[in-house]
Specification:
Elements lengths: L8 H10 L17 H14 L7 E5 L5 H8 L3 E6 L2 H14 L4 E4 L12 E7 L8 H13 L1 E13 L14 E3 L4 E6 L7 E4 L2 E8 L3 H10 L4 E7 L6 E7 L1
Helix pairs in contact: 1-4
The structure holds S-adenosylmethionine.
S-adenosylmethionine binds next to helix 3 and strand 2.
């Protein structure tokens, strides 16, 4: 089967590994993985919805090398992490071992969550959905998450959004373009991969979908979710972060 644009993450993780980093954002050590604000937000959200999280089943979608899967496991949850990158999954397994954490890392596609054949009390997406560009793919992720929740379960979605539609994050770069459909493309080589297009002899690979917040809120409603809470962390001059808690 022809690979899709999101398989490009594998080469990013190979580079991360080669450089001796342990995860996204040039993290050099376990302590560098993740930020304090996310950890606090996750702890508060879990405490609010699951006063006794020990043994409850959690899924981290697009888990990378395990940053947020580790946070959930440290709260006593029974965690599965899924990522498209084999390298990220291998690094996550190794990092979990060094911390004595028992996490089920799976190399798989978040468009096919039903293949896990499991239900979860909590599903966490930390910055994966904005890597899923096309609307039909995004809907597969969201409906798959909805079907994979236990009754009473929650889906925590943290995703990059663009509240100011006039802002062009690519203005400074000639290797990136951000179009009117909110798709961020990066310059690439010719390829038959899904998501690679040609414009004026130059090839571009779909990289991110950075929608305005109201579009993401409409998408999750279309997938059958009820929004329990939403919060927008605005970062001036940069895409902002939308944090949704869904049921
Ligand atoms: C921006 S990174 C975030 C990683 C991690 N969740 C974190 O917060 O540090 C996005 C992750 O989503 C993964 N990803 C992208 N598309 C995917 C897909 N279709 N299936 C599974 N994982 C995917 C990437 O490999 C990458 O690890």
């Amino acid at each position: 089967m022809e690979k899709s644009y999101y398989h490009a993450h594998e080469s990013a993780y190979r580079e991360i590994k080669t450089k001796g980093f342990v995860g996204w954002g040039n993290a050099k050590t376990l302590e560098d993985l993740g930020d304090a604000a996310t950890k606090q937000y996750l702890q508060e959200t879990v405490a609010k919805h699951f006063p006794n999280p020990k043994g409850m089943k959690a899924l981290d979608v697009g888990c990378g090398t395990g940053t947020t899967a580790f946070m959930l496991a440290q709260m006593g949850m029974d965690v599965t992490g899924i990522d498209i990158s084999e390298t990220a999954i291998g690094m996550g397994e190794e990092l979990a071992r060094t911390q004595g954490l028992n996490i089920n890392f799976v190399k798989g596609d978040v468009l096919e969550l039903e293949k896990l054949n499991q239900k979860f009390d909590l599903i966490y997406d930390s910055h994966c959905l904005h890597c899923i560009v096309f609307d039909e793919d995004r809907m597969k992720v969201l409906t798959g998450a909805k079907k994979s929740l236990n009754p009473g379960g929650i889906f925590i979605l943290d995703t990059m959004v663009m509240p100011n539609e006039a802002h062009d994050p690519t203005a400074m770069f000639d290797t990136l373009r951000f179009d009117n459909d909110h798709i961020l493309w990066h310059k690439t080589k010719p390829s038959h991969m899904k998501g690679v297009i040609e414009i004026d002899g130059q090839h571009w690979c779909a990289q991110r979908r950075i929608y305005p917040p109201h579009t993401v809120i409409a998408e999750v409603a279309k997938a059958g979710f009820v929004t329990l809470s939403h919060r927008l962390d605005v970062q001036p001059g940069n895409p902002s972060m939308l944090r949704l808690i869904l049921r």
